[in-house]
Amino acid sequence: MVRAIHSYLAVAVFLCFSAGFARAQETEWDRYVRVGHTAFEQGDYFQAERMFLKALELAETSVEKDRLTAVSLNLLGRVYIKQGKYAEAQSAYERSLAIKEKHLEATDAALIEDLRGLSSSYQAQARYLEAEPLLERALQIAEEKLGAEHRDVSIILNDLGMLSVYLGRPADAVAFYQRSLEIAEGTSEPDDPHVATVLSNLADLYWRQRRFDDAEPLLKRALEIRERILPPDHPDVVQTLDILGVLYHDTGRIAEAEALYRRGLVIYERVLGPEHPRVATLLNNIAEALREQDRKAEAETLYRRAIEIQEKKLGLEHPDLALTLGNLGLLMASEGKYDEAESLFLLVLEIYEKSFGSYSPHVGNTLLELAGAYQNQGKYAEAEVSIQRVLQIGERVLGPNHPTLARILDRCAGILRKMNREGEAQQLEARAAAIRARQATVTDSKLSENEYQAIGSLRTINTAAITYASTYVSGFPPTLAALGPAVAGSPSCDAADLLSVELSSGKKSDYVFVYQAGPLLAEPPAACSIAGAESYTVTARPARYGVDGKRSFFTDETGVIRWTEEDREATADDSPID
Fold first, then answer.
1. What is the dihedral of CA 498, 202, 235, 246, to 10 degrees?
2. CA distances for 301 relative to 313, 331, 406, angstroms
3. 68 within 8 A of 28, measured Cβ to Cβ
4. What confidence score (pLDDT) does residue 444 get?
């Protein structure tokens, strides 16, 4: 079963880029901003949009045009995110950021909110790799200008936690959320809405990890905070109700879950409108609850309504649409309509391959369902191709000894058995049993701070390498130093200014990083002294094993991070972080 739950950004801190913002007398622009801000805080996004558009209109003819226009655009971007108008939000944030960068230094704290907002708009459009460098830049600015324990640092860490969930990096997400919560609880009031946001998002992650006992108290605490400080029909209250409903759903409390979903749906439809993407999320979740109660006709109606909204508001290639299409495919398969299920799974597969690549877990899960649909139609050749792809993805992404691979092997064995391939089914089941016998995964609570930092640094290197390849069209960087700051002049393919001096030198947080480029391309581009590489690997080892860290890590151009507790370099054969 697959259900959708969304995490939402905390209400942004209102930043301006001029110290002389306050005025002795309220102007008409001030009044529109004040009324719009009040409407935003109350969840009345339609009124907030109207007020901020009025403010923007005045700003563009003001003597303080650039400053007031940038602030108005930033506020509009926030509203557009809440309304699900992600392209409009992207445009607003890009315009605001461009104005500010024209007047400010590249590390000015006033850039933080536009970087966060632009990242959020990219995430909402499933452009996750483009979102990550923006948040990393925002975090660097916040820590440098505001201090490592500032509330804004906590907000950005929460953003990075959400992005890590979307990118399939649960260990990173837990680390970001826990750091965010620690800072927030130390610097905020007990009823700070940001604390509730982090609690809710961390609970969301625990739900995904099946840690229901850890998730429920966090959700209830978040709900208590939000119900104390927000109107009862505020969208942020619904977000917590939604996640709590999903938790109840997964622990067998289906009727309670459905009631929470429906309560949230009424609020969303009234406050956000009947065609908002969040409405589609709850329609999907209600349909899932109905499907489990064998109310299939009702479920199908809601799935199709959710799909109609998502196609209109998110486009035909968005992962949220793929999730709902996949759930409808499962419903069709349960009714024996395997040809319809096949068509739906093929659509899902196409979207996931475009969004996450051919070797993502999303693709693997979809191929499993597709193999089942093929098998039930007697399309055994197609089923076998799908099974082989599933196994390739599982082994490449997870490694040969991962517990999730054991579950995949069991599922593939079941399909083969239905195809009368008993011998091959038994071989896969034997492999699964062997994996379970030697199961060993990284436990997040055992990771030291240095180890968390090393994992984060490897993620940063991977992002920088991808950005380098797309920017200079010359393959991956030939050296780690090529990702570092330029000594003089503008960034180039020899010094792309994508990593800090410290990390590009190969040492950070008591870990040593070794970058190895794969085969180099034939000729370097005209502006580059060295050709780029077709592939790369990076290892991270503690400078003093057992003192600075007990684990070594490995990654490559696939983005998967692997680990070992032995006193050696990790390799591509080691287990990935779960």
1. 130
2. 19, 11, 36
3. no
4. 40
Contacts of 31 (CB under 8 A, 6+ apart): none
Q: Model's pTM, two decimal places?
A: 0.54
For residue 575, list its beta bridge partners. 563
Which one, of 288, 57, 9, 21, lies nearest residue 159 by Cα? 9
Given a contact cutoff of 8 angstroms between Cβ atoms, the answer to whether 60 and 29 are in contact is: no
| pLDDT of 433 higher than 90 | no
Nearest to 226 by CA among 257, 256, 267: 267
Give Cα separations from 39 to 32, 33, 34, 85, 231 (angstroms).
10, 10, 9, 18, 12
- Chain mean position to CA 340: 30
Domains along the sequence of the chain with CATH? 357-437 (1.25.40.10), 455-576 (no CATH)
Contacts of 4 (CB under 8 A, 6+ apart): 281, 284, 285, 320, 323, 324
pLDDT in tens, 231-281: 888 888 888 888 888 888 888 899 999 999 999 999 999 888 999 999 999
Point out which residues pair with 485 in neighbouring strands.
none
What pLDDT does residue 312 have?
92
- Pairing state of beta strands 552-556 and 561-564? antiparallel
Strand order in the sheet with 575-576: 507-508, 511-517, 536-542, 552-556, 561-564, 575-576
- Say if residues 525 and 549 touch (Cβ distance below 8 Å): no
Report phi then psi at 539, rounded to 5.
-115, 150
CA distance 293 to 287: 10
Give per-residue pLDDT as tens, 436-494. Answer: 776 544 434 345 678 878 888 898 898 888 878 777 767 888 899 888 887 666 778 88
Cα angle vertex 574, ends 572, 577, to 5°? Answer: 105
Average per-residue pLDDT for the chain: 85
If we measure between CA atoms, which residue out of 294, 201, 184 comes closest to residue 240?
A: 201
Beta partners for 492?
495
Cα distances (angstroms) measured from residue 101 to each of 69, 70, 266, 532: 13, 10, 42, 31
Contact 311, 347 (CB under 8 A): no
Distance between CA atoms of 473 and 354, rounded to whole angstroms? 20
Distance CA 39, CA 448 (A): 44
Q: What is the CA radius of gyration of the chain?
A: 25
Task: Report residue 3's pLDDT band, with 50, 70 and 90 as the boundaries.
Answer: low
Name the residue among 439, 380, 388 with its Cα closest to residue 409: 388
pLDDT tens digits, residue range 353-401?
Answer: 887 678 777 888 899 999 999 999 999 989 889 988 988 888 876 667 7
* CA–CA gap between residue 62 and residue 54 (Å, rounded): 13
- d(CA 39, CA 12) in angstroms, rounded, equals 14
